[in-house]
Amino acid sequence: MKRFAFMAAIASLIPPVALPAASPPSSAALTSKQRLIILSDIEADPDDTQSFVRLFLYANQIDLEGLVATTSVHMKHAIHPDSIRRIIDAYGKVQPNLNLHEPGYPAAARLQALVREGQPTYGMEAVGDGRDSTGSRMIVQAIEKDDPRPLWISIWGGANSLAQALYTLRATRSAQDVTRLTSRLRVYTISDQDDSGAWIRRNFPALFYVVSPGGYGAGTWTGIHSRIEGADNATIGNDWLRDNIQQGHGPLGAAYPDVSYGMEGDTPAYLSLIPTGLSDPDHPNWGGWGGRYELYTPAVEATDPDGFTGGVPIEQETRPIWTNATDAVAPLTRNAIGRAVVPADRSIKDFRATLWRWRTDFQNDFAARMAWSTKAYKDANHPPKVHLAHAERLTVKAGQRLVLSGLGTMDPDGDSLSYYWFHYPEVSGWASAIPSGIAPNSVTVDFTAPMVKARREAHFILSVTDKGMPPVTRYRRVIVTIEP
Fold first, then answer.
1. Which pLDDT band holds residue 31 (cuts at 50, 70, 90)?
2. Fewer CB under 10 Å: which end of the chain, C or N?
3. Number of H helices, E strands in the chain
4. With 0-12 CB in 10 A as exposed, 13-18 as middle and 19+ as buried, what is 427?
């Protein structure tokens, strides 16, 4: 009874929320987009095409500034910009319908104008005096653009177009200007698919760089398609892709090719830029749909040095980079009777877990947005709007009771909502799990701050999933400072 009285008291503080009409949000709701340039060795593997199909479904939520066709160790002397253009053509056929669901989807002509070419040459052979390409020049222009936002370079193949841009900057600008301009760069590369990535990290030691160097077996990005024992693997299956993406979902879905090696190995390079309320791209150690990474210098023996790289040499890193972190995750299981969801008995500890822990959520989100390409607003599912009944940052004393609440959260389609609160122990300064005093799938929960001898931080995540089809999830993060 005390629990019910406590929750009723909290509820009384929150005004009732009226359900909105079934209509898309205003453009004011989509703010502060991340700037992004893609470097892709498209046609080396079908997964680049898969990743572009998904990317364009979020083209209203990310500020795309360049789409560059490049080489890689898997395709050393060819580039295929026309393959990017074909996907944009398919996107253009569904873009008007996508705008019925959320505003801001760019016209296909605008995306076509972003397509550029890197040098059709492998790795560092394409870097040096007189080696500029339309792709490298676009990167230089974007770096020099008068825009205070960071510029993300998402590298799905070889990195030599970025290497050439940096080479040109260093040759034509003062050292102070190079430092200032590159301080706004954020690089996420899917392993090292040519020999220019290591060169970049050696020559620009202050550059913000996210990578799992070495063999692909050490890649956090493999969590997007790895079959994990004890986890939900249904949403990476070929039948799921056929039913939810490829077939009966319009020309963009039909452009999504079958899996040949691994599904969408390049997609993690931009997943954390999607504004879901979970991640802060400038804090890779906080975790998000694209995985979680920590800043350190990995030993070469920890990077799967004998694993597959396509022949790219593996070097000892010379400075700290954002690279593999490890999470221990107990997958949630659903009950037919009683508490709706509970953690599984077994926790899985793995660097890939930092990514696949969100996999069901981002796959369902992908499926929901693909449905937008053909369905009317009233017939599709849209993300819930997560609201906190308090600030995103709180301060408590050690041993103090902490109340967290998502009251005021609503769903634009009027769907029923499921809630789940959890402490993320691998993030920040308190590694021991802080359990909830109330069932964690309640909208309002409480935690007891642990006893500390020095100020610590703890991160708590609220995950809200609607009961539409497919279900869609959004989040809010609460950062709690615990004082002694």
1. low
2. N
3. 13, 18
4. buried
Looking at domain 382-484, which of 3.30.465.60, 3.30.230.10, 2.60.40.10, 1.10.150.320 is its CATH number?
A: 2.60.40.10
Please write the tens of the pLDDT for every residue from 304-325. Answer: 999 999 999 999 999 999 999 9
Cα-based angle 83, 87, 92 (whole degrees, multiple of 5): 140
Q: Provide the 10 A C-beta neighbour count for residue 171.
A: 10
Q: Which amino acid is at 421?
A: W
Output the pTM of the full model. 0.93
Cα–Cα distances in angstroms (integers) from residue 54 to residues 82, 274, 303, in the given order: 18, 11, 29
Q: 346: pLDDT confidence band, cut at 50, 70 and 90?
A: confident
Residue 122 pLDDT > 90: yes
Q: Which CATH superfamily is domain 29-324 in?
A: Ribonucleoside hydrolase-like (3.90.245.10)
User: CA nearest 397: which of 482, 480, 294, 468?
Assistant: 482
Give the pLDDT of residue 428: 82
The tokens for 12 are 């009384």
pLDDT (tens digit per residue) in 237-271: 999 999 999 999 999 999 999 999 999 999 999 99
Residue with tokens 């993060």: 477
Distance linking the first and last C-alpha atoms of the chain:
32
Contact between 281 and 190 (Cβ < 8 Å)? no
